[in-house]
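Tutorial, part two.
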Amino acid sequence: MQADLLVHLDRGVVLFNDRRFFEAHEVWEEAWRRTDGDEARFLQGLIQVAAALVKWQRGQSRGMTDLFAKGCEKLTPFRPVHHGLDVAALLDAVAAWRAASAGEPPALRRPEP
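Running the prediction step on this input gives:
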């Protein structure tokens, strides 16, 4: 499952960074259904952050704040890096973006070497 998880994770990251949040959510959800434990929690956190951004894109503020909070809470234990993703930077970017309520939405990055 590990290789399959990483394929889905990477595919979702590309979609997320292309601002295709709904599609990223769907790819990660497919992997989440076949995962359990910490990996399921990690994926669920990403799914919830992506779902919050889908609501933002659709102008549906209702539920967006709760999804961000739930997703960030699930991702926090995976700081600073998990599966090569800079989780700390994502969480910081989400917090800054939400505080500013403007600008480009957060992206998922690999940590700098």
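The mean pLDDT is 90. In part three we will examine how such features are distributed along the chain.
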